[in-house]
Specification:
The chain is an alpha+beta fold. The protein has three helices and five strands; from the N terminus they run αβαββαββ. It has helices at 3-14, 34-39, 70-81; strands spanning 15-28, 44-59, 63-66, 85-98, 105-119. The protein has a five-stranded antiparallel beta sheet. The longest helix is centred in the first third of the chain and has 12 residues, at 3-14. The protein is elongated.
Length: 120
């Protein structure tokens, strides 16, 4: 086996990751009151596709920084488009580890994609 192939095999073994995906109908900003919006049959206009991502990092598995929750990812997606909510949302959570045996550095990210809307 060549040195290049051994190096590729070693690097592949040192990286690990997994992800999950799900879908939702409507997701609003964390500061919105979705119940009152639905009760009032509020109209809306479509602003187009939107995507947001929030990540949390861990160094040596004991020093965390960042925020990877879905609310943060939704707020980032809506901030970029100026929208109030997302329709037909897909949410994905991913976990990546570099040198996973020792937990030297890992991070987890939540990504949301959907159609941004603005309530009238």
């Amino acid at each position: 086996m060549s040195i290049f192939m051994r190096l590729v095999l070693l690097l592949t073994c040192m990286l690990a990751g997994c992800s999950t995906t799900g879908t939702l109908g409507i997701v609003t900003k964390s500061s919105a009151d979705p119940a009152s919006l639905l009760k009032n049959s509020q109209g809306f206009e479509e602003l187009g596709p939107a995507e947001g991502q929030a990540c949390r990092h861990f160094i040596l598995a004991i020093i965390p920084f960042g925020q990877s929750d879905m609310a943060k990812a939704v707020d980032k997606a809506l901030e970029a488009t100026g929208g109030d909510a997302l329709l037909n949302v897909s949410a994905e959570s991913s976990l990546y580890g570099f040198i996973p045996i020792y937990n030297v550095y890992t991070f987890t990210c939540t990504t949301v994609k959907g159609t941004a809307i603005k309530f009238k």
